Amino acid sequence: SSGSARASTQYPMISRTRLVLVVFIALFLLTALLLTTLLAFMMTSSDLVDESTDSPIPMGAVVHDKRFDHVVDVFRANLNAGMERAGAAFAVYYKGNPAVHVWGGWKEIMEERLPEKEEDSIKVLSGTPWDQHTMTVMFSTTKCLSALVLAHVLQSSPSITYSSLVVDVWPEYGRHGKEHTTIGDVVLHRAGLPYGNRSLSLEDVQDPELMSKYFEDSTPVWEPGSVSGYHALTIGLLIDQIVRRIDEKQRGVWKILDEDMLQPHRIVDLSMGLRRAEDNARVATLSGPDEIDNKREERRDPESLRLYNLGNNSYNERLNEVFSWITPTSEDYNKLSNRLLSMPSNLGIGSAEAVAHTLSIVASGHFLNDKTLSLISKPVLEDQMDIINGYAESKGYGLQYTKSPKGSWIFGHSGLGGQNVRMDVEEGLAIAYLCNGMKIADADMVEPWKKLLEAVYSVLP
């Protein structure tokens, strides 16, 4: 009996020991599982690189495709060479997949020191770093999105093409000598309406019915179809009026882009005008350009500065009178009231990653069918004079065209201050460069953009 008593007193002890052992093994296995998962995550093709501690200029990158490491190196070199007076981001999608997203510099500059010598860069003493989710004003790269929306709407309406007269869908437009204007004329900047007969307020531009009457009552500045002259602010507004008359739901450009492209693909860091006022906290503050930038650009590339200054002409003087509340200055584009406006020529707001993602979807054969994509992949006008910009350009379908480092046509649009977005359908590339430190140089003559574009093509097979 004493033996059975001993045994009975030991059973609880054995049970507790087993319990502790089971718990220990379970914790060990759980820890091993977590470590394995973490290791697997770290070994995926996407590497987050945060270099903000290694340099006085904050910088980070996500590299999905190791071949594009060189792009990060070039972006870093641009930053260190003082090419970005504030901040910038660059993103590439390759064959439908994200390749690289790199960002750096300052979303907002609090304090800066001007250079003692002209050749030196502005030194930022304090500021808010540009991060992975920073958005910025896209300026005229917005036109690329509007052009793609028009192409998307036209392919759903086979009876209406770029050759169709505007009056076929908008009869009232034909007043004052505009009856022979085609949709193609509008997107080739040949409509003769870089501005209308009277000045516009912000409230006017928010009212589609008022804008419809504004264009109907306006007299062309030149005979429609005769010459091409950059419609900096009106081309998007005209496209908006046209698509409202073709789309079966009478939606405008921004609503079509959001409902047919952005929402289905869960792209949230892109909009025309801010979705909400509170989103402005994530949007970079624009700065410059100023006299220091002017002198630096004159030394770097006098021809680039000359072309940029051709925009100082009577057409643009009148444009700035008509749209006096949104002139091409950082001050006007920093205003929240302007940033809330869904203006389809110039007020896209987004991250480089979101823009590149959007263009990649198009380049991959979604949103536009193969026939439409093939049509818009080559320019209508090649190296033809733009009477407002003052130099020759290749353009078509609301887009700008340039040759890639490989010699093929790439298309998209540039924007004030150095912004640039491009697609190369042959190579399966979608590229976006956005910055808040506004450059003097125009379009493809912007130095950091040129270097980054060359870097992308240098790693392709």
Automatic annotation (TrEMBL):
Transmembrane segments: 20-43
Domain Beta-lactamase-related: 75-443
Domain of life of the native organism: Eukaryota
Keyword Membrane appears in the UniProt entry: yes
Listed Pfam families: Beta-lactamase
SUPFAM superfamilies attached to this UniProt entry: beta-lactamase/transpeptidase-like
UniProtKB keywords: Membrane, Transmembrane, Transmembrane helix
Keyword Transmembrane: yes
Chain coiled-coil ranges: none
Name of the protein this chain belongs to: Beta-lactamase-related domain-containing protein
